[in-house]
Amino acid sequence: MFNSHEEALKFVADQDIELIDIRFCDLIGTSQHFTIPADQFADALENGLMFDGSSIRGFTSIEKSDMKLIADVSDAYVDPFRACPTLAVNCSIVDPFTDAPFPRDPRQVAAKAEAYLRSTGIADTCFIGAEAEFYLFDSVRYQTQPYDTFVKLDSVEGYWNTGRDEEGGNLAYKTPLKGGYFPVAPSDKFCDLRDYMVKLLSDSGLKVERSHHEVGSGGQHEINYRFNSLM
Questions:
Q1: CA separation (Å) from 71 to 36, 48, 200?
Q2: By C-alpha distance, which of 7, 25, 3 is closest to 15?
Q3: Residue 12 contacts residue 38 (beta carbons within 8 Å)
C-alpha cells in the first residue's frame, strides 16, 4: 500500500488513523498481534518494536526472549473490522542486538527462499496462488474429556436439516451431500456475505479473481485471488 515510511505516516495523519495493529506470524502459521497508538508509529518505524519471543510457539527459550519487529508498510491496510480507525502492519522479526533476521520467522524464511531461487538462475520470481477455502457454520461445538468426546457442526444449508422445524417455516433448499458446487440462490445462501468478503479483500490490495460456493454441504466456500510473490 505504501512505498515509504513517510508515505505511511502521511496517510495515518491525513486519514485520522488512531491505532496501529502490529502483526507477525508464529512458526505454526498463526497471525499474532498487539496494538500501539498512532503517535508511536514514527518511532516504531525508525527503531522497531520489542516483544517477548519466548511466549510465541516455536520461537525461543526464556533466556533468549528479546526480539524485535521491523514493520513492512508495503502491504499495510486499514482493518475494516475494528471500531477504531486502525492500520494493520505486517512485520519481520530480527535479533534486537544485531538486526540479523530471525531464522524461525516465516517471513524471513520466505524472503530467503525467494533470494535462493534468484541465486540459482532458474527464475527471478516465485508466484504463489493460494486460495481461501473455508466453511461458514451457524454453530460449532466440540469437547474432549475422559468421560465425553464430541464434535457438533450446524449450518442452515446442511442436508441434515431438511426435517428441522425452523422459525418462519423450513423452506427446504438445503445443499445435498456433496452437491454444493456452484448452485445459485436460494440454495446458495451466502452470496451477499461472500461479496462483502471480496470487497474487503479487494480494498486491502488483493486482486480477487472469483468467488463461489464449494462442493460441501453446510456452507463450504472458496475465494480465489491473483497469484503474487511468496512474500
A1: 13, 7, 22
A2: 7
A3: yes
Residue owning grid cell 460456493 = 213
Tally the residues of the chain: 231
Residue 192 corresponds to which amino acid? D
What is the rounded distance in angstroms from the CA atom of residue 208 to the CA atom of residue 112? 27
The owner of cell 518505524 is: 45
Could you tell me which residues come within 8 angstroms of residue 189 by beta carbon, excluding any fewer than 6 positions away?
Answer: 156, 157, 173
- Bridge partner list, 211: 223
Q: Are 48 and 68 in contact (CB under 8 A)?
A: yes
Per-residue model confidence as pLDDT tens digits over 177-199: 999 999 999 999 999 999 999 99
Q: Is 118 helix (H, G, I), strand (E, B) or coil?
A: helix
Edge-first strand listing for the sheet containing 131-135: 131-135, 220-225, 208-213
**Model confidence pLDDT, tens digit, residues 149-168:** 999 999 999 999 999 999 99
